[in-house]
Predict the 3D structure of the following.
Amino acid sequence: MFDPALFKLPGMRRAATILGLLAIVEGICIVFQAYYLSVAIVGLWHLHSLASISQPMLWFALAWVGRQLLVVIKNRVMYPLVEQTTGDLRRKVMQKLYRLGPSYVAKTGTGNVVTTALEGIDKVQTYLMLVVIKVIDMMVIPWIILIYIAWLRWREALFLLAIFPLIILFMIILGYAAQAKADKQYVGYQRMSNHFIDTLRGLPTLKQLGLSKRYADNVYQVSEGYRKQTMAVIKTAMLSTFALDFFTTLSIAVVAVFLGFGLINGTITLLPALVILVLSPDYFLPLRTFANDYHATLNGKNAFADVQKMLALPVPTERQQLGTQPVQWQSDSTLSLHDVDFKYDDDQLALKHINIDVHGYQRIGIIGASGSGKSTLINLLGGFLTPVADQGKIQVNGQTVSHLSQDAWQQSFFYIPQNPYLFHATLAENIAFYQPDASRQAIER
């Protein structure tokens, strides 16, 4: 559940250290809260005056307030880091998409890209905000409570120590089942997103062919499959929550029975017995809160894994072979490709022995049957695809380059795809989408 890649994020180790220290203080507050509450209850049991229990109740109130303040402080510590981290991830994803180009979108699917870049980052934010605090609390607070219970009475502490890993083992088994179902649900969600985007794009064509109503059945089947996958995840979540509540409640009941026998036999007094009984639910509370949020963060974990996988994809290197300034295309400029090959992931060549010679200002049309590689060639010329290494020769103004994914080259031309997209922004912002710092004069030009 706790992805090790989280600790590689900037600032996460420092935040985890601070959260660990705050969890230690919170555990101490929980112990103080249980002790002084038990002192007040025992005082009332022995018919002491209300004035005599005012001081224990004051200490209890201070410990309770301190515990709640620590929860707020932990959220305050984590929230700015999560905001900055998700913002950086979103920028890195968009930059990576620009580097990977339209071929990655075509291969992965527009719905998958949208899910990862937009909603996926939002799910990552929820995942980071919930899981880090919960995991650290689960690793720290139960040990503080267990040490204090062991100091009061070692038998109950030994039982709680033995039952905790058994509950965790059972939850791991259910967690793997939930993870498998959540993975299928996330894939189904991406598939539904792809179908939705494809439907919107192809709706005019479907209407012209009279197939729009027939295609609606396909959309229904996809959405119905996603509904069934979601219900399967919810069933597993409800089962795991019930199992956790059952075992923790049963464990607390067993501790209460042990304490009851101890009171009957006179081996323990009322105050420590009551303190142990009050602390027992708090001993399991971090595990229960973690389990409650576990299923809510599964999609966030999957989205985080997808983001990391996409950011790890290789991109062309040696992008400065033409310098840092845009290439100024003039009447005597030249672009030539000789015996250039390109292939996708499989071994079959998509483009073979491509030869092109362009001189100065020309209008060039690329003609070919559907699937013959026209879009692939355009993406290759735009620097969005990288040709087969050490095969053929590419020259710009007589200078040999290993590929056209050059910063200077890509800054010197305009690329209009077959299906352009206007963002929900001003016309000027759409024109300057890849150069947001452009001046008004540059935009108008």
